[in-house]
Amino acid sequence: MAPPDDDSVPKPLLPQLSRRAFFKGAGASALSATLAPSAHAADPSPPVLGPEPAPLTLSINGRTVTVQADPATTLAELVRNHLGLTGTKIGCDRGACSACTVWLDGEVAASCMTLAFDARGRKVTTIEGLAKGEALHPVQRAFVENDAMQCGFCTPGMVMSCAALVDRNPKCTLDDVKQAVSGHLCRCGTYPNVFKATLAAAQGGGKAKGNT
Amino acid sequence: MQDVKDTSDPRASNKPGGEQQQQQAGGPPQPPQPNPGPSRQQALPYGIVGAGLKEVTRRVPEDEPPPLPENAKLKSIGKPVSRLDGIEKVTGKARYTFDVQLPGMLWAKWVASPHPHARIKSIDTSAAERYPGVRAIHIPERILSTAQLRDPKAEQGNRYPTVRYAGQPVAAVAADTPRAAEAAVKLIKVEYEPLPHVSQLEEAMKENAPRVFPGPTEQPATAGGGGAPPGLPQKGNVRGPDNKPRGMGPRGDVNKGLSESEVVIEAEYRTQVQTHVPMEPHGLVADWKDDGLTLYASTQFVTSVREDAAELFDLPKSKVRVISDFTGGGFGAKYGIGNYGLLAIHLSRKAGAPVRMILDRREEHVSGGNRPNSIQRLKLGAKRDGSLVALQVQAYGTGGVAGGAGVGFCHSTLYECPNVLVEQYDVFTNAGPCAAFRAPGQVQGIFALEQTIDELAERLKMDPLALRGKLDVSGTDDCLARAQERKVGAERAGWNKRRPAGSDKGPIKRGLGFAQSQWLYLVQPSTACEVRVSGDGSVEAFSSTQDIGTGTRTILAQVVAEEFGLRAEDIGSHIGDSRYPMGPASGGSRVTSSLTPAARNAAYRCARELAARLAPVFKANAENIVFADGKVMVKGKAGSAMPFREAVKKAGFEEISQRAERRDDYEGYLFKTPDMALSRHGIGGVQFAEVAVDTETGIVKVERVVAVHDCGRPINPKLTESQIYGGVIQGVSYALYEERHLDAASGQQLNANVDQYKILGSRETPRIEVILLEQLGAQSSTDARGVAEPANVATAAAVANAFYNATGKRIRTLPMTPANVLAALRG
Ligand code: FES
Ligand code: FES
Q: Residue limits of the 2Fe-2S ferredoxin-type domain (chain A) (predicted)?
């Protein structure tokens, strides 16, 4: 899920950004998780932003978009409320359920714990950008075939994590899948089928085999 | 449904879904005669497929379709069809209420009381009103989802509703942006006069405890169950006893029975408060316009949302439209408009713009509902041969400011016992209201009852499975199913290899246990469905029912497809809109049992009408037109086959449409209202659990669960299996981890989020093996029943019985956290 809690490398705190996550009292590990990706996006002398909205240009699902957003806007809020990409869900808004999982440069990230401004210069992929046109990602197809969903509210996040796993490690094992979705909360209890679907997608080598 | 209770008192029947008509006294009412009107005597298959199907003859309404054979002989029903809306769900296109974004939509936020009990002296909204972007403010004049004072005058003179739990909404703001709404609520100044409060069950039971309500109360039921019967005595915070579970009074003479018993088992069990935590929180988007109100609702019952809104805002139902495309889980708690909906509608009316009011995770935990806790004292008397003589249960639980903390009906219905007395008490506390939660009451009740039965078996040196076989003899369909389930399950689980309790010598101890599940077979008689065929060959089905994750769209399509010889994917399956014919509540495990017969009846009629239109095209009699494999043909003449669409186009009509209702079960019901009918048969299952208990750390792992269930005719085994996984997982989560912690001093929930409220995740998911019976009960045109609740009923009890088998110690307190486990091991 989020990058490991690694405090060995000092990270600039970017105090000029209004850190919503900080003021909302997020736990220390969650906070450093947020800060980790911002380190390499930070400009040596960034202009002071906020609290008013400022223009922001991002690459989302292969499109370049420019929006006005206040610097406290999370990436989850931005894609949902500014861009209408509501496939990304918010289940807890504090880094604890992974419903909001997106990819940043192909790596999974909790978009509720990522400030939109910290996604500048990175390629953002949301659930809407996972399929290539009509062609579903093998994990998406396997989720449907193996019924790895019930209410479906956690599903976009689950799919993003499982698709990242299968892309990175097509030889993934059951333990790998469990690890990949260990931060995901599914109240409907779809885990057994999430495991089945992800392994089916991996074993299908990009061509998921279903059971129907 | 928790208990099917006497709610004939009009004070308790303001929720249409929960009304049940029954006489206050005088025992069970006479069962009504099913299906008046023309009928035929019909032979129907009856029994468990693969375990001796036979034929029964029943009186069937004349216009019902011919009976279906077993699933193996069908093309669409009973097949593991993939969820029709699966692609929308995996691509992010599925639009939940959470995702509704209307032009000009405002964002609402409420002020939550920090006090668990207070009178509100004043509310000053002036600063909030001036905050940029604020468009409307509303102060609620009433609070929903709580017990109501029997005598409203008891709090006369209060300007605002009394605060009875920390987190109760006090005022709400609608603003242009979420940020503005959040900022503005902080500017609302509320002057509270704090009152003494009590948030712990046993504290609240004391005579001198602070009173949550200044007088006796009534708790309206919802269609999802919960609630409590009207007119019960109330002393302080303790309301009850309710001793008529399932409309049945006490049976026999318990004291006499106990004195005649040769063995008496006595024990106390405790269960915790569990919160629902649907991943999509409660919420509603309200769009008030002069010509009508549109509500987008995350709900388990579209109809209940419309009824609440119409009633509370004095609107004709024709002016209220409710849309629910997708609901992100509910588990019993999402009925009606709730306080969030009430506020959203007021704000929308004031602002003249759509308003989105969706709870955040903290608000959801605190005010969205919960499963009440329980303290249950059981006394079970039996003969040496195992037969039960007497069962006495006294149960106290708190659902916070709402009633409905009973422990189910299993004591009267699961096992043969001549003397039964169950007294269930609601204890009010200053805590968020409970709500129906996946088999309300029954989960708690079975946890204690099934351990008690195991204890009896141990005492009598009988095999727990064999003892069940001796006691579970009501002869109802669910009883017959369980006999088969015990057999198949025991084989799969390896019951014959089960070792004596506490056999492992090392610190990690493994064990195998099992428990039985039972739930009601419920039907919503008001269910209807419309099926249309358009001139181009499109087939569509319409029902206002919603999908909370069970796959309603898919099963509806499967049933309709069967009649037209089409695939489920060919059917337009439309649900989640109050403009469609009334569909069932997604609660009480009643969607499939209610909707599929209505859908099949409508599809059958529509297909017969279509056959009549096609007869001239095929130059044949309508009775000889058959639909199969996507084609139309004349019976016995394969050469006449024509693709379905092509044939329909040739018939040259614009549209035909048929609507049909859910007819009564052929055998009739125990009782019936327009909203709910209860069969004398039930549904259920048995579950076997394997656990590993680390006796040094107190950590329990559930390694494997074998879940064997019946649901009548499974319409879609793949989706059914998913629901059983879900029930087992929620059950393990409840057994091992979940617990709401309230701080006694402040009345605040300490773990109102998902990082501290522990729920089972991927790493703790056991290996789950599902075995599904196909049981034909010869009751309706599809013979389908529900499965959601029974899948959750037995799990905690099975885990607890496995814990005993592992350690030789009883765990009588949930959840099985290290502290509770170590205490049990010491005990
Ligand atoms: S919403 Fe981002 S982790 Fe829960
Ligand atoms: S499918 Fe409902 S929360 Fe996962």
A: 54-130
